[in-house]
What does this fold into?
Amino acid sequence: MAWMTVRDALKAAPGTTVTVKGWVRTRRDSKADGGLSFLALHDGTCFDTIQIVAKGNLSNYASEVAKLTTHCAVEATGVIVQNPKGGNEISADASSGEVKVVGWVDDPDHYPIQPKPHSFEFLRELAHLRVRTNTFGAVARVRHTLSMAIHRFYDQRGFFYVHTPIITGSDCEGAGQMFKVSTLDLMNAPAAGGTRHLALGTSSSQAAADAAPSPSPSAKSLVPSAPDFSADFFGKQTHLTVSGQLNVETYACALSRVYTFGPTFRAENSNTSRHLAEFWMIEPEIAFANLQDDAKLAEDFIKFLIQTMLNERADDMKFFDERIEKGLLNRLKEVLDKPFRHLPYTDGIKILKDAIASGKAKFEYPIEWGKDLQSEHERYLTEQHFKQPVVLMNYPKQIKAFYMRENDPGTDGAPGATVAAMDVLVPQVGEIIGGSQREERLDKLDARIEEMGLPIKEYWWYRDLRRYGTVPHAGFGLGFERAMMFLTGMQNVRDVIPFPRAPKQCEF
It folds into this structure.
């Protein structure tokens, strides 16, 4: 007999004999009809459970069925019948079925995931078990569907998927200050001066302090400033990447439309609800494109993801609307239905300052041209002022990366130099996408690299893209987990990734 998922069994025709396999959520017993048990069974394929009505005449009823506890694993065979309250259930008795126990819960009184509400803080300590709850099961299914939707969106538009490395030798956006990759003995690394480096990535003063309470000056002098990376696996210092963008640009300059989707790393010592050390990024790149083309792609992308979730994960989205964020579905439908407002950064600053002056808003962080906006500023623009998504464009040069195209002087009436950068702002989240038109002019790119004190020799390959057939191109990055928060209403980024990586958190 074929094994049927709970999702399919809930839609099966009455009278059909089926076998389902899953885990017990709850069990309640009744003395009716000589004794029977009602088992709520789930297998993770959908939000709902299916009820197994296990009759007392089953050969193992007293010895096993009546002793089942939360998350015991069973295989149940029976006949699909209509529940008096509506919907399907499975009737299992000695004549037409069985309930076979294939996995018991050891010490059920101390099993951490009980059929009762648990705080997210508690469940974060049980990342390996929390997916068994309603909330995190729904998060996992939405995450899967979102992943598939991303690939589908770009495939339908003629983009090619490109794998980009997670190990890089370039110091793009501060990668050199982030996670380092090495095969050296971290406690005894070779140094360029011929001595031994006490601890890779540890300052001289800290290494000396760890070695002895009161190190002598001579001992300190033996600790070099850096290890000899020529003896390392790659023969140079390498890091975990903070972005696949620069790499994927090489393919955009040959294949026109490409994207990458994979893990990235940031080693900020941040314990905020919006930051992780390891997360996933989606980064499309388009040749022969400007900032307006980039913004149009971003808007189409966001709306496609919303529509996919509403169409394909309606049951899970209803749960998030009811239990996580009241009004979530209405918020998403408003983003879906409204055009994205395009606004220069300079105008956005003026709106925020006017809001303060008029008493309409009060912000924790100050507003000043030339500084990044905080989420409170971004949310004011989307939720209160415009009441629609906003694409903020043409940011001050000094707060953006070296590879962004420099605008002509006086663009948008800005008091200083700007670059063709954009942030897509949405209600509840603020910034969800950051992108730019890339600097395609070699002289401008070189000047910017020098201006920011970056090692120009490390970017020889990136400069080649401008030396040999340069082309205007643009792209953006979307943090996958940030998108998950936007779509589900979950408030902490650690709750939308299976195994969060954060300061002091790397158990699994």
